[in-house]
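User: Predict the structure for this protein chain, please.
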Amino acid sequence: MPGPTVPRMQELPAGTTFGRYAIVRRIGAGGMAAVYEAQHTHLGRRVALKILHPSYAVHAPSVERFVLEANAAARLQHPHVVDVFDVGVEDDVPFMVMEYLEGGDLGAILEQENSLTVERVCALMLPVVSAVSAAHRAGIVHRDLKPENIYVTLGLDGIEHPVLLDFGISKVARRGGEPNLSMAGELLGTPYYMAPEQIRADDKVDARSDQYSLGVIIYECVTGQRPYRAGDSVYVLMAEILSGQADPPSTINRSLSPDFEAVILRAMNAVRDDRFESMQSFGRALMPFASEATRTRWTHEFDPRPSEGKPASAPAVAATGRASRPSTIGRRTTRLATGAALGSQSVSVPPDDLRVLTALRESSPDELAMFALLAPARRYPKDALLFLQGTQGESCFMLLRGEVEIVKSMSFGDCVLNTLGPGSVVGQIALVDLAPRTASVIARTETVAIELTREVFDKLIATANRVALRFQEHIAISAIRQLRVATQQLTALLDERASLRARGTPDVDPSHAARLAYVQAATLEWDLALEANRRAPTPRILKREP
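Assistant: Here is the predicted structure, written as structure tokens:
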């Protein structure tokens, strides 16, 4: 006799009949779906039945994401990806039927054992790397890799057999130019394991984001700790991930070899291009640290290519455990397209440090944390060129520490218009206009600054972010005040020029021209002091043409 029909509730009791399946017990639940052990009423086959919560069944994007998961998993015929047998809708509730697995997820194993040996980690992760690599070849980026989505069973040979689960937020390459389900601006995934580009809601999230997540998982496996621990504040956590300032795993587990640590740090590098070029390369880098039995099992897939001769090497890692880059300290460099000067580094700053900026002084801690998350700070070495005169910029710089010089190149030489310190803003005209820069900005000392791009600023304004709205108001009020005072000073300078001409003095006077340049810069882009009752400071001339 069939059981009762499906009730409209979050949990289905044992004995409930759901289509062709009889519920045995609930074995797991997430924010959008629950998973039950069930039995096919005719075949007697034991399965895992995943059912979308009824409250989400009326939400089209949730249903589409649920179906996407089923299709993504079904497309992958891999021994370390969960099998999907069926997918459908019962009483307006979407469901999928998967193989029933006995064992436990990697998260539960870590909770019980704290940390694992390097050989065991390689034995568990090489199959996962293989599964994720297969997904990437099929055009699928998982985007939610975490210990709870790696289920470990025991094979008939007694060897641990990891299986990859949950493609619910995967990104699938589509044909015909159709948009991906998860568009730019969506923050999807589990924060502890998300790559920096996912935190930024980058629309270019790719296979290297999955590699980053696996690097974090391996870090946790060999240390028993996550690389970023931010208490109860998700904003601080995300800011730490964006800064890439994780402690090297060897500071926690001193038995780790430098070579294995380098593999971990390369996989979870905050800079996407500095990670391994593919999941295959990542697997080859792990192979030397696996046991002989594991290497034999996976040599067909991860054997070094003939041209390589040995596993892909990781970049040099300094004593801090972070990938090192060529230093540019002591020389001025051309501004990169991203706005970050060569030699600059992402840094994590306490949200309260942002209060040095006038526009942010009254902001709440959460507002400051979110602002720092979307517009992270960078450290610039002495003499670094933040941006160059004449280039078209799309960002401004908010100074938190150190000093910068505003340098203007003119026909008679280079002039330092002024020196700005903490609390100043340079280049704000770029947030409202794509006009060329009127001067260059050079770090006079080591400097920490936030680069606020026009794209991020527009997103913040569109979402009515209060910090951005305050800053927008600050820019508008400052611009109006500066324009009013600058008009008065410009009139005074033009009157002075007319007086010089009347006395027969040549028009071209470096001091006079530099003061005009100062007024122009103060009006357009800089927190340069202008007072109506006195003349603009005379800029310092660095050099003169012969």
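The domain at 345-524 is CATH 2.60.120.10 (Jelly Rolls).
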